[in-house]
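chain below, 210 aa
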Amino acid sequence: MSGKEKNWKYSEDIVLEPTNIAGARSHSLELGIEPVSPAVGAQLAVLAAASGASSIVEVGTGVGVSGLWMFRGAPGATLTSIDTEVEYQQAARAAFIAGGVPANRFRLIAGRATDVLPRMNENSYDLVLIDADADSVIEYVEHGLRLVRRGGTVLVPHALWRDRVADPAQRDDTVSDFRTLISELSKSSAVLMALSPAGDGLLQMTKIGD
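prediction:
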């Protein structure tokens, strides 16, 4: 194991995942849904807390792992979460309630993000998490940057896409989309961008202009 791999493993193992989140993670894996890693979840909590997030949008509810992490950092926030799978959202609802999140703190919308996001108010949210349908990641990020207020942040887990984005030999459409997205954002004057190697990569962009 290389030094970098040891660092990566250490950053994951050091996270003490709360029981309710660990339970949701186990359920997610049983259903074949890849949740954010513990290290990425911890970063979501830190970013939610540091930004004082009160309004959050999530694309890709899953069974609530990432939502629970964000509520850990911003327990007073309101989360709007979008997913096409009603069964997953029912599991997420149960996980939120079991985790002590009041029912009026979250709204679960069953539908395609491409249909829902255009109807949401621009410049109105503190945090947008995009963790669904990697084939549409560029479109989702465009919507996310429209939805967040100035100073708001858009987050994209799995941005290194199974360790393929950094490998120049990999050229499939999803990898190319992530490379294009990261490259364009790095040159943009409208956002501050950082790419964390935690988990499968966490792309972070904070809106500073129009």
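DSSP finds eight helices and seven strands in the chain. Residues 160 and 166 are 7 Å apart (CA to CA).
thats it, cya
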